[in-house]
Amino acid sequence: MLYELIAVVRPGRVTDVKELVRSTGQIILSQRGVIRSIANWGTYLLTKPINRRTARYTEGHHFIMRFDCAPSTQDAVKRMLGVDPRMLKFGVVKVGDGTLGGMMDKAGVNWTRLEEGESRNSSYR
After folding, report:
1. Helix, strand or coil, per DSSP, at residue 12
2. How many helices (DSSP H) and strands (DSSP E) are in the chain?
3. Residue 30: how many CB atoms within 10 A of its CB?
């Protein structure tokens, strides 16, 4: 199944974010999963303050990871992130319905066939 992890890490140290991404990736890869993409969004203001471990956060470092894995691996990722004190908030969602056709709609790729005489560059406009 294709999953998307949206995570908000406490701001301040980029090394915390890198370590979380690395440890999440290691769990996925050790259980024969595949990481499809990682996007670092940087630090943004939160919609409302989050209170964690006697601290109040008004901004957080966001990252997104797309990965294929078994449902048990996804549960292991959620357990690991849930106990990590650097995490402010996260969510894991299943992308598509588990079929190739269902995932093609979510991939952001134009799968239409080019007509005779049409160039590839014109289909990305």
Report:
1. coil
2. 3, 4
3. 10
pLDDT tens digits, 65-88: 999 999 999 999 999 999 999 999
Q: Say how far apart CA 110 and CA 101 lie, in whole Å.
A: 13
How do residues 6-47 score in pLDDT, each as one tens digit? 999 999 889 999 999 999 999 999 999 999 999 999 999 999
Residue 86 makes CB contacts below 8 A (sequence gap 6+) with 9, 10, 16, 19, 20
Helix (H, G, I), strand (E, B) or coil at 59: strand
DSSP lists the bridge partners of residue 40 as 63
User: Burial letters for 68-93: b for 16+ Cβ neighbours within 10 Å, e otherwise?
Assistant: bbeeebbebbeeebeebebbbebebe
3-state class (DSSP) for residue 73: helix
Contact 73, 28 (CB under 8 A): yes
